[in-house]
Amino acid sequence: MSKKILITGCAGFIGSNLVDFFLSKKYSIIGIDNLSTGKIKFLNDALKSKKFIFKNEDLLKYSRIKNFFSNVELVIHLSANADVRLGPEHPKKDLEQNLIVTSNILEAMRENNVKKIVFSSTGSVYGEATEFPTPENTFFPIQTSFYGSSKLGAEALISAYSHAFGIKCWIFRFVSVLGPRYTHGHIVDFYKKILKKNKVINVLGDGNQKKSYIHISDCADAIYKSLKYFKDSINIINIGHNQFITVKQSLNRIKLLMKSEKKEIYQKKIRGWVGDNPYIHLDIKKLKRTGWKPKIKILEAVEDTVNFIKNNEWILK
Amino acid sequence: MSKKILITGCAGFIGSNLVDFFLSKKYSIIGIDNLSTGKIKFLNDALKSKKFIFKNEDLLKYSRIKNFFSNVELVIHLSANADVRLGPEHPKKDLEQNLIVTSNILEAMRENNVKKIVFSSTGSVYGEATEFPTPENTFFPIQTSFYGSSKLGAEALISAYSHAFGIKCWIFRFVSVLGPRYTHGHIVDFYKKILKKNKVINVLGDGNQKKSYIHISDCADAIYKSLKYFKDSINIINIGHNQFITVKQSLNRIKLLMKSEKKEIYQKKIRGWVGDNPYIHLDIKKLKRTGWKPKIKILEAVEDTVNFIKNNEWILK
Questions:
Q1: What is the CATH architecture of B4-177+215-239?
Q2: Distance between CA B247 and CA B20 in Å, rounded?
Q3: ipTM above 0.90, yes or no
Q4: Domain B179-211+243-275+293-310 carries which CATH code?
C-alpha cells in the first residue's frame, strides 16, 4: 500500500506541523504551497527529509497541480484564505481560495483516483450557534461570515464528491488552533499592540467573547486518531476543547507573559468584527470516541504561542 | 420609490411565470437570460409590455451585466443549472452556474447599492433529511448532491453578504415546481417515455420515492406574500405542500391522462440516481404565517403540467 500523503497549504501553521507529524509517522509527503502566507522556514526540518517533496504552486492553476496527485493515498487539504475578519473587504477571495481551490483539489483526486481526503473546516460554519457546546448535527445554521460560508460550501462540495465517487472524507470543524508557528489571529494582534508605542491596547469587541482553542499537537493527534477510527464515507468531526476562555482572559495572560501594564480599551459591542461569533464552544463527544482528549489546557496553549512568537519575532513582519 | 425588479433566468419555467406575475402587479422588470435552457417563447406576452426589458446575457460575464443592476429595488435570482441529476457528469457546472454566478449577482448588487434579493434554493439542501416534514432549522444536514451542495454554498454566500452589507434576503427552499412552462423533470421524462416506441416505461428507482410538489401559481403567491410578511435581514423559508405523492402515483396519473397502458419497470433501489433523495417533504408552517396556503392539489398540478405539455410538445425537442 502506498503511504503517500499530499498536503495543501503545507508551509502554513497547521500545514507545516502536520508535515512534521506525518513524517515522524514514516509517511512520504508531497506538499504544495504558493507561500502567499506560508513560510518556507517552517519547512526547514521537513526539507532535510528524503520523504518530503515541496512544490511551490498556486492551487488555482489546475493544469500545473493535477499530476502531483498521482499515486497519492490521502489528501490533507488545508490551503485557504485564513483571514476570517477581512471577508467584507474582498468577498471574492474566500470564494476563490476556499471554494474554487477545493473544487480543483477534488477534480485532481478524481482524475488520479485518490480516494481519501481530510478537510480543515471551521466552527464558523455554525454561524451564531444556538446550542452550546455545539454538536456536529446541531440546528441548520445561518451563515454570518464569508469565511464560514465558503468553508460550508467547500464541505458541501466534498460531501457531494464523496457520495458520487466513493471518496472517503474526514471534514474537521476546528476551533482556532494555537502553538508553534502560529502566525495570525488574536495572539499576534495583541502581541503587536503591546509592542507598539501606544499607551493602550484597543480590543475588538467587549472582550467577553467566549472562544475555545486547541493546541496544534492536540489537533494533529485528533486528526490522526480520527483517520484510524472513523470509517464512514462522510465523517464530520468537531475538533475543540472542553474549555473555553474569554478574549479578556486571553489578553490578560498575554500581558502577563510580556510584562505589559498597558490599559485595555474595550468596545461596547459584543462582536469584534462583522461575522465575529461572540461564543464558540464545540461539542467534542464524537471526537472523544476515538480515545482522544486534549492534553494541553487553553491558557497553556496561549503561553506556548506567546513563547513561540517571542523566539520568532520575524513572523510579525 | 422605484419598483424595478431584476429577474435572472427570466426565460425559464419559474422565471417567465414570475415575470408575468410581477408585471400583473405593475412592477417594471429587467430580465436576464442567456437562453441556454430558457425559451424566448415563454416571454411572448411580457415582451409586449413596455414595463419589461429583456437582456440576452451570460451572468458569468460580470462586466456585461453589472450595469443592469442600476436603480433596481429587488433582485429575484433564479438562474441556475437546474439539472439535478447530472451533477456527477460535470461537477464544475453546478459550481459555475450556481455559485460563481450568485457571487457575480451579489457583487453587482453591492456596486449598485441594491438592498433586496430573493433566491431560489431547494429542499435538496436538506440532503437525506431525518425529520419529516422538514423544517428550516432541522438538524445540520450532510449534502448528497452537487445541485444541493452548490445551492447551499450560494445560500451561505448570500447570508454572508446580508450580514456584512445590510442586504435583505429571502431564501426560498423549493420542492419541485409544476405547471405551465414546465420543461424538465420527471413529468417530461415520463411523457417522453410514453411517446416512445418502447413497450415499457423504465422508472429510475423503485417508484416509492415520496416527493412533494407545488404549482407555479402557488409558488409565485408564496414568494409575493413572503416579501410582504418577512422583514428579517435573512429570511429562509420552505415552499412546499402539505401533501406528498410517490413517483408511482405520479406516473399512474400521467399514464391515465395520456391514455397509456404501457407496463412500468421499476428498479430495485430506493434512489433514482446518485444524489436522489428518496423522501422530500418540507414543513411549511413558517410560510403559512403569511396567510398563504397551497390552492392546487399535487395531482391537479401534475394534470395541469401534462396538459401544458400536450399543447406545447415543442418543449420536448
A1: 3-Layer(aba) Sandwich (3.40)
A2: 30
A3: yes
A4: 3.90.25.10
Determine, for residues B106 and A99 on separate chains, whether the beta-carbon distance falls below 8 Å: no
CA distance A98 to chain B (A): 11
Q: Is A5 on the interface with B (CB under 8 A)?
A: no
Tell me the catalytic residues of A. 147
Domain residue extents for chain B: 4-177+215-239, 179-211+243-275+293-310
Judge whether A4-177+214-239 and A179-211+243-280+295-316 match in fold. Answer: no
Question: Are the beta carbons of B160 and A275 separated by less than 8 Å?
Answer: yes
Residue-wise pLDDT for B241-273, tens only, equals 999 999 999 999 999 999 999 999 999 999 988
**Which residue among A91, A160, A165 sits closest to B149, beta carbon to beta carbon?**
A160
Residue from B89, B97, B157, B171 to probe the interface with A (highest A Cβ count within 10 Å): B157
B213 is catalytic: no
Domain A179-211+243-280+295-316 belongs in CATH node 3.90.25.10 = yes
CB < 8 Å to A156, chain B: 143, 148-150, 152-153
User: Tens digit of pLDDT for each residue in A75-102?
Assistant: 999 999 877 666 667 778 888 889 999 9
Q: Which helix (H) or strand (E) holds B215?
A: strand B213-215
Q: How far is A104 from chain B (nearest CA, A)?
A: 9
pTM: 0.94
For residue A156, give how far its alpha carbon lies from the nearest alpha carbon of chain B (Å).
Answer: 5
Q: A4-177+214-239 has which fold? A: Rossmann fold (3.40.50)
Mutate to test the interface with B, among A157, A168, A232 (most CBs of B within 10 A): A157
Chain A residue numbers with beta carbons less than 8 Å from the beta carbon of B159 are: 127, 142-144, 149
Q: Are residues A246 and A180 in contact, defined by beta-carbon separation less than 8 angstroms?
A: no
A152 touches chain B (CB under 8 A): yes
